[in-house]
Amino acid sequence: RLKTAIVPLSGVLGQLDQLHGVSYQVKDDKGVLPPAEAAKRRLGLIAQEMQEVFPELVSADEDGLLSIDYVKFVPVLLQAVKELKTENEELTQRVNALERRTP
Fold first, then answer.
1. How far apart, in Å, are the Cα atoms of 81 and each of 20, 39, 56, 72?
2. What gap in Å lies between CA 66 and CA 57, rounded to an integer?
3. How far is it, in rounded angstroms, from Cα 42 to Cα 26?
4. Residue 100 φ then ψ, to 5°
5. Which value, to the nearest 10 degrees, does the dihedral of the CA atoms of residues 37, 43, 45, 86 take?
6. Sequence-separated (6 or more) residues with CB below 8 Å from residue 47
7. What does pTM read for this prediction?
8. pLDDT (tens digit per residue) in 12-56
9. Which of 7, 20, 33, 80 would disulfide-bridge 38, Cβ 3.0–4.6 Å?
10. Burial of 54 (C-beta count, 10 Å sphere; 0-12/13-18/19+)
């Protein structure tokens, strides 16, 4: 009841293609993290890339450091899965049609 101007997501596969999953370590110049935590490898995305593609998912703190709201990224991923499902179904139908034509 609180949502207005609802617009379905579409064409997200092309947008996701512009993003790169990465493995990284956090810079801890100020020594805020325990050493074991700072040494951990993490998985994520590059916020600057995400900002170009989905700016509504990126925010900056008072120091200008960017962060991604991964929870809000879930609807994009869901839509991408649905687009892949549709594409897969279409390709399966084409393959089946070609197989029926081949003796």
1. 17, 33, 20, 16
2. 10
3. 8
4. -65, -30
5. -150
6. 58, 66, 67, 68
7. 0.83
8. 999 999 999 999 998 888 888 888 888 899 999 999 999 999 999
9. 33
10. buried
The percent helix, strand, coil of the chain (3-state, each to 5) is 50, 15, 35
Residue 72 CA to residue 95 CA, distance in Å, equals: 36
What amino acid occupies position 33?
L
Q: Are 73 and 57 in contact (CB under 8 A)?
A: yes
pLDDT at 72 over 90: yes
CA 63-65-71 angle, to 5 degrees, is 130
